[in-house]
Specification:
Elements lengths: L2 H11 L4 E5 L3 E2 L39 H4 L2 H9 L2 E4 L6 E6 L2 H10 L4 E4 L4 E6 L5 E5 L2 E4 L5 E2 L13 H4 L30 H16 L5 H16 L7 H13 L4 H14 L6
Antiparallel strand pairs: 1-2, 1-3, 3-9, 4-6, 4-8, 5-6, 7-8
């Protein structure tokens, strides 16, 4: 039994869907029957389909936890030729933040909650508990691997895995274009919900982390400001705890990075709209 197959069976037993990789960190191509999606399943490998091909076809969608499939004869050739092993994070209820270089890793250490990490050739994988839509190039050197994606298996990593934070989910949210009159005031969150914060310390810590995240931005400052505002409002915007003082702290941090007051207002308004927290 090959090393890749042995590890694959162990991961499958832990409910982690696996698939073999060929050279170049690529999945095995479709078999002749499924070539060019002639089987009608999983078009462009973006959505699961009805195909029940016994070969490791259709990229990430071939990932499985069934030991009978993993150890079957149709998969045997792939395991003999495999140059690596991959898994489907979303299928295991996980999200991998793929940090492709030192700069991306430094950003994560300054901006994201700590979690389990796995060293890669050029950077690190940060693994969170919880699934989301995967996306590439959410910022320089950063990809999100979760649903409809695969990640290389490079070992179990170190550290305690933590819950997927809103700041990671916000990385895939595109800021909507602002349509606004020439002069606006910053709307407050709707509020009115039950307050989940047992002490003001929780809110103060969240604002301080947001200030640090904005201050640490080295590129794409406007996008960082918007995503940070979105993360703050996702956590603190529904119970009415945010005050003008908190908002002023965030705006001050953003303007210190070169953002205009107008851009701050636009980003805050768009974040409120995205989360459905505007009045009306």
């Amino acid at each position: 039994m090959s090393t890749h197959l042995r590890i694959a069976l162990g991961l499958a037993a832990a409910d982690v869907p696996v698939l073999p990789l060929r050279a170049g960190k690529l999945p095995f191509g479709n078999c002749p029957t499924c070539a060019r999606n002639a089987c009608g399943g999983r078009p462009n490998m973006k959505t699961p389909g009805p195909c029940t091909c016994p070969d490791p076809c259709h990229g990430w969608a071939a990932a499985t936890t069934d030991p009978r499939v993993i150890g079957s004869m149709p998969w045997a050739r792939a395991w003999r030729e495999a140059a690596g092993l991959a898994y489907h994070p979303g299928g295991a209820g996980l999200t991998v933040v793929d940090l492709d270089n030192r700069a991306a890793t430094a950003w994560a250490r300054a901006s994201l909650p700590t979690t389990r990490t796995v060293p890669t050739t050029r950077g690190e994988h940060w693994i969170y508990r919880g699934a989301m839509q995967g996306a590439n190039a959410v910022r320089p050197g950063v990809d999100i691997k979760s649903t409809m994606a695969y990640a290389r298996w490079l070992g179990p990593g170190t550290g305690t895995m933590t819950a997927l934070p809103e700041v990671v989910r916000a990385l895939t949210v595109k800021e909507p274009a602002a349509v606004r009159p020439a002069s606006v005031t910053v709307p407050a969150p709707v509020g009115g919900g039950a307050c989940p914060h047992r002490t003001p310390t929780y809110l103060d810590r969240g604002i301080a982390m947001a200030e640090q995240r904005i201050t640490a931005a080295r590129s794409a400052v406007h996008a960082t400001v918007y995503r940070t505002f979105l993360a703050v409002l996702s956590t603190h915007g529904r119970c009415g705890c945010l005050t003008e003082t908190h908002t002023a702290r965030l705006f001050t941090a953003a303007q210190a990075k070169g953002e205009s007051a107008r851009h701050c207002t636009d980003a805050w308004t768009n974040a409120l709209t995205t989360l459905g927290l505007t009045h009306g």
